[in-house]
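Readers outside the structure-tokenisation community will struggle with the description of the input data as it stands. Showing the layout once, in full, would remove most of the difficulty. For illustration, here is how one protein appears when written out as sequence plus structure tokens:
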Amino acid sequence: MVQPGGFWVRAGALMLGSVAFGASLGWFVARSMRDRRRPRKPWRIYLMRHGESTGNVDRNLFTFVPDHAIPLTGEGARQASAAGKTLRAMVGDDDVRFWVSPYQRARQTFDLVATHFDAGKVSVREEPRLREQDWGNFQDCEIIAECRRLRRKFGPFFYRIPAGESGADVFDRVSSFLESLYRDFDASRAQHVVLISHGLTCRLFLMRFLHWPFEKFERTKNLDNCEILILERQADNRYALITPVEETPMAAHDEWDEYARCKDHHNPSSASSPPEPLSPASRHRKLISNLV
């Protein structure tokens, strides 16, 4: 015998159950759609600086060879090949997506790295936004010496090189590149992404990607030639830098101090001492003539 009101109690319970089920189903569908919209992130992102270039060895080359045309040295080629072997050991037979600066030294580095991979496992895109910081066309040694002095005083992130870029300018184009990179995650479906770029550009990528303050960028030591830094996806779907980076006082490191000072080809002994600072008038004339 049905108790008074029993039908309505059961009906109400069924309705509540249906509402709860519908809410759960709606949450599941919404979650699935959100996950489908979310880019499929690779397991690791590798940042790699190009191999040793002729410009790393002799800065005088920048006075008559365009920065983008500077090639690798023999040692740089060996470094790139060794780095390719190391990368292959880390990624195994997984698919790899390369993004490469259009500068000659970066292209050559990729070509040597790629010899260690099966062609069917590799895809590559050349990306101008991964190029080196622009130091202003052909680089007069005296002007660059003065720029280095002012850059140290002003700070490498905000100092803008005459006819060139500031670190902040490079940061902006790296930020723009990140949007393309995220869109590409779904398209490529590669488990590993490798960026072959330049020391300062790699550090600014880390600053943007990991939300560093600019002071940390300025303290972070520049990458060695063919050094590899690894960002690995964690359980929370965020990336963490799993390779250590060395921090030093800002004045203790500068990319231009890593290499030989500008040298007089006719008097190599002059490389032992830096150029004398320019007077304001001569500096102005030099800057103007360099811009023309």
The chain has a mean pLDDT of 84.
